[in-house]
């Protein structure tokens, strides 16, 4: 036999789930686009700090640390080719305002981008990178991914861009 | 066993100076320092130094450390208090020179880093503590009110500084940083308990007629 307290607890759980489902279902019907589409990436807080527009296109800014990611179109998620992504970070070369720590790369046909640079070091309390899309065709997005550990040798991120 | 007061004093001061000096010394060996500009290095050590001084402040205020006597210890307490205000100013100023964007974000409470809000809270609490000391006479506060305000602000400054420091991945070596923060918190809480609760209660009981 199930003790009365357990029965009451499972009733409460079931009732809460049902209640939650009832509040969620109509909302789910009202926003159908969320389920199947790629939502645009939103600019992160502090993402544009120490941005120097039009960083030169580079093949590498150093070696030992890889910043990579994907660029997709909002909605259908199609990979975007030839999109310029600007990247900067505090590394062993110096801080985020050090010009040698700023560079741009273009995405490949599969929407991927990759830049090798010097090791990223903690700056203002967190080891992090900055990435920007700021070329007008799509809405501007600034990202500020934080490394899980200052010992990490790479960081990955994704841009889902919405038309401007 | 005979107690040697001079040896006890040397041990007490040695332990306290080691507890606050070792974390600073270990931070000075951080490899990340060589990747920072001078303003950022000064800002880093101004912040670490202010945290380290917070270990001495309650001990001096209460006169726990043997040697100087309460009056001189209180005088040192005022000078170190000025040092903490100066350290805070150098910390924020140096960070601003290094990255105005990040520093303004922090000051305006819109920074993405969770420790920034604690740093800014500590900054205001430290500045308010300093102002309260300077305006002590002009404000015309009675001693009990002034004490309560000073202790409350100092406690906010200590708590906010500790949370700020512990969340930061920076030049401080983690273990010694934790030890220093626990030490600062323990010294502050014990002093508050002793000066504002235990001793007043003992005095109050002393005034009660014996049964």
UniProtKB/TrEMBL annotation, chain A:
Membrane-crossing residue ranges in chain numbering: none
Listed GO MF terms: iron ion binding; oxidoreductase activity, acting on single donors with incorporation of molecular oxygen, incorporation of two atoms of oxygen
InterPro entries: Intradiol_dOase_core, TAT_signal
Domain of life: Bacteria
PROSITE patterns the record matches: TAT
Name used for this protein in its record: Twin-arginine translocation pathway signal
UniProtKB/TrEMBL annotation, chain B:
Transmembrane segments: 43-67, 79-97, 117-136, 148-166, 178-197
Protein location: Membrane
UniProt domain Ferric oxidoreductase: residue ranges: 47-160
Keyword Transmembrane helix: yes
GO cellular component: membrane
Membrane topology: Multi-pass membrane protein
Alphabetical list of InterPro entries matching this protein: Fe3_Rdtase_TM_dom
Keywords (A to Z) from UniProt: Membrane, Transmembrane, Transmembrane helix
Protein name: Ferric reductase
Species in which this protein is naturally found: Paracoccus litorisediminis
């Amino acid at each position: 036999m199930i003790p009365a307290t357990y029965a009451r607890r499972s009733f409460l759980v079931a009732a809460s789930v049902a209640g939650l489902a009832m509040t969620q279902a109509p909302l789910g019907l009202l926003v159908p686009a969320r389920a199947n589409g790629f939502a645009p990436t939103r600019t992160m807080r502090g993402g544009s700090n120490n941005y120097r527009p039009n960083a030169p296109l580079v093949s590498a800014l150093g070696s030992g640390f890889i910043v990579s990611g994907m660029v997709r179109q909002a909605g259908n998620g199609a990979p975007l080719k030839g999109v310029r992504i600007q990247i900067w970070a505090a590394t062993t070369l110096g801080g985020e305002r050090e010009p040698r720590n700023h560079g741009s790369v273009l995405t490949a046909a599969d929407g991927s981008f990759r830049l090798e640079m010097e090791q990223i070091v903690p700056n203002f309390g967190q080891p992090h990178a900055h990435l920007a899309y700021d070329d007008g065709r799509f809405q501007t997005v600034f990202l500020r991914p934080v490394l899980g550990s200052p010992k990490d040798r790479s960081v990955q991120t994704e841009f889902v861009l919405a038309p401007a | 066993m005979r107690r040697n007061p001079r040896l006890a004093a040397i041990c007490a001061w040695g332990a306290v100076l080691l507890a606050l000096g070792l974390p600073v010394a270990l931070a000075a060996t951080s490899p990340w320092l060589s990747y920072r500009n001078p303003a950022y290095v000064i800002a880093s050590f101004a912040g670490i130094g202010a945290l380290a001084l917070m270990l001495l402040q309650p001990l001096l205020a209460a006169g726990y450390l043997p040697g100087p006597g309460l009056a001189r210890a209180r005088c040192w307490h005022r000078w170190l208090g000025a040092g903490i205000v100066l350290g805070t100013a150098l910390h924020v100023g140096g960070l601003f020179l290094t990255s105005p964007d990040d520093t303004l974000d922090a000051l305006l409470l819109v920074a993405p880093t969770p420790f920034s809000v604690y740093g800014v809270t500590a900054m205001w609490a430290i500045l308010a503590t300093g102002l309260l000391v300077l305006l002590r006479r002009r404000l015309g506060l009675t001693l009990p009110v002034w004490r309560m305000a000073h202790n409350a602000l100092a406690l906010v400054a200590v708590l906010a500084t500790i949370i700020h420091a512990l969340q930061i991945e920076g030049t401080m070596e983690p273990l010694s940083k934790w030890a220093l923060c626990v030490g600062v918190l323990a010294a502050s809480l014990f002093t508050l308990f002793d000066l504002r609760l235990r001793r007043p209660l003992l005095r109050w009981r002393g005034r009660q007629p014996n049964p």
